[in-house]
């Protein structure tokens, strides 16, 4: 019998890569999707798997829909990727963010506990939980100090995952993932905003790019590599928490240099600093230590930042040229 997986947030960036990975491994893939007006399946279509997923409608804020999804999917593995995941928006919608990204995870844990406590559970935790705490490199022992309503909500979900593991013996694991990007990244996030703008400027469709704090540093990896770490965590005999990162940090400024440079452009003449994109509280530096994931899961990132950003710029050029045609 093929294994069955239920993925919340399947219409997001990671959802598309994870669905593709699991389908390649022979899983039946069930996607838990919120009802939306517009076409939210474009990433699954670009990943070539839109028709291979069984879609189950529901909402992370509705426990009954999650319990039904557990019953319908008969899932052996449950990946909770659904969230209000944009840090900037979390100051505008702190309550919704807490409900979806925080309480939503507890709803999924409850659905697992009630319907099938033998299922393995994955929580999409985040380096945003470290926030203000700067270690030489952040790892599983680094304390947390979130800096945004998003980080606060994710910390609740993270501790709920640990707590359900300890209280009920659930196989509940948490991946503390550092920023990961791809051509399927939402355009509100800084890497895709930059690669999309660089391609638009190159094609004469846009003149300038307005950004906030370009001195912020992030440990950026490729989403396609990171979903493999999620799957590996679910195959372990014991559930645990793992940092997933590259171990290299880069400023937004230097990431811009790579993107514009790939098209033979200088970023300086095009980037305009705009206070609107600064955050009320910033996470200045993120830098992770993936040693535990390497030792226990045999996982290592395969894609450099240069490869990642040039892949994204090339994809944006193709899309924009396609639109123009
Ligand atoms: P995305 O923002 O691309 O995807 C989020 C997904 O959650 C979408 O499918 C969205 O659907 C869904 N969703 C939002 N609200 C609800 C709701 N109320 N009910 C059901 N589904 C909902 O995120 P990523 O793919 O980038 O990230 C996946 C997960 O990993 C998220 O939890 C994120 O917080 C976390 N994470 C991401 C990192 C990264 O760098 N990408 C790093 C660390 C953690 P819709 O679009 O229809 O609203
Ligand atoms: P982040 O990603 O907040 O780290 O959260 P984002 O790409 O939004 O910001 C990264 C850094 O870039 C700075 N920045 C800008 N950011 C955006 N979005 N737009 C701008 O114009 C801009 N200018 C500068 C930000 O201030 C920040 O320092 C992502 C999300 O995927 C989360 O869900 C996830 O948990 C974390 O990564 C790890």
Structure notes:
Pfam families: GDP_Man_Dehyd (PF16363). Keywords: Lyase, NADP. With 325 residues, the chain is α/β, with parallel strands linked by helices. It has two domains: 4-180 and 222-244, 3-Layer(aba) Sandwich (Rossmann fold); 185-218 and 248-286 and 303-324, UDP-galactose 4-epimerase, domain 1 (Alpha-Beta Complex), CATH 3.90.25. 42% of the residues lie in helices and 16% in strands. It contains eleven helices and 13 strands. The chain has helices at residues 13-24, 42-46, 63-73, 89-92, 94-115, 149-168, 190-202, 223-234, 252-262, 291-297, 305-324; strands spanning 4-8, 28-33, 54-57, 77-80, 120-126, 171-177, 180-181, 209-211, 217-218, 221-222, 241-244, 250-251, 271-273. The chain has a seven-stranded parallel sheet with strand order 3-2-1-4-5-6-11, with helices on both faces. α3 (63-73) packs across α5 (94-115), α5 packs parallel to α6 and α9 (252-262) crosses α11. It is globular and about 55 Å long. The model has no long low-confidence stretch (mean pLDDT 97).
Order of helices and strands: EHEHEHEHHEHEEHEEEHEEHEHH
Uncertain regions: pLDDT < 50 for 5+ in a row? none
How would you state the average pLDDT, rounded? 97
Level-2 CATH architecture of the largest domain = 3-Layer(aba) Sandwich
Please indicate the percent range of residues in DSSP E strands (runs of 2 or more).
Answer: 15-25%
Helix-strand category? alpha/beta
CATH superfamily name of the largest domain?
NAD(P)-binding Rossmann-like Domain
In the sheet with the most strands, the strands line up as 3-2-1-4-5-6-11
What's the end-to-end separation, in Å? 46 Å
SS elements, strand count: 13
């Amino acid at each position: 019998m093929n294994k069955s997986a239920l993925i919340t947030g399947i219409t997001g960036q990671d959802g598309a890569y994870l669905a593709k990975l699991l389908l390649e491994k022979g899983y039946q893939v069930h996607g838990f999707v919120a009802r939306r007006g517009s076409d939210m399946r474009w990433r699954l279509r670009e990943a070539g798997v839109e028709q291979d997923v069984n879609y189950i409608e529901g909402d992370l804020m509705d426990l009954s829909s999650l319990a039904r999804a557990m019953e319908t999917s008969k899932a052996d593995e449950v990946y909770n990727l659904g969230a209000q995941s944009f840090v900037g928006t979390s100051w505008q919608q702190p309550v919704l963010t807490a409900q979806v990204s925080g309480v939503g995870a507890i709803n999924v844990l409850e659905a697992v506990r009630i319907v099938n406590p033998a299922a393995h559970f994955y929580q999409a935790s985040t380096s945003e939980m470290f926030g203000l705490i700067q270690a030489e490199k952040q790892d599983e022992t680094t304390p947390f100090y979130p800096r945004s309503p998003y980080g606060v909500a994710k910390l609740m979900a993270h501790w709920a995952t640990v707590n359900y593991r300890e209280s009920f013996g659930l196989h509940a694991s948490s991946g503390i993932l550092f920023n990961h990007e791809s051509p399927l990244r939402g355009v509100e996030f800084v890497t895709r905003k930059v690669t999309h703008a660089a391609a638009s400027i190159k094609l004469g469709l846009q003149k300038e790019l307005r950004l906030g704090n370009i001195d912020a540093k992030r440990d950026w990896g490729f989403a396609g590599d990171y979903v493999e770490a999620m799957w590996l965590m679910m195959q372990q005999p014991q559930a645990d928490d793992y940092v997933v990162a590259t171990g290299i940090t880069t400023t937004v400024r230097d990431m811009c240099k790579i993107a514009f440079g790939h098209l033979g452009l200088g970023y300086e003449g095009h980037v305009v600093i705009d206070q609107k994109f600064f955050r009320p509280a910033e996470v200045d530096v993120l830098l992770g230590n993936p040693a535990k994931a390497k030792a226990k899961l045999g996982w290592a990132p395969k894609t450099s930042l240069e490869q990642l950003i040039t892949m994204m710029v090339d994809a944006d050029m193709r899309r924009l040229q396609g639109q123009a045609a």
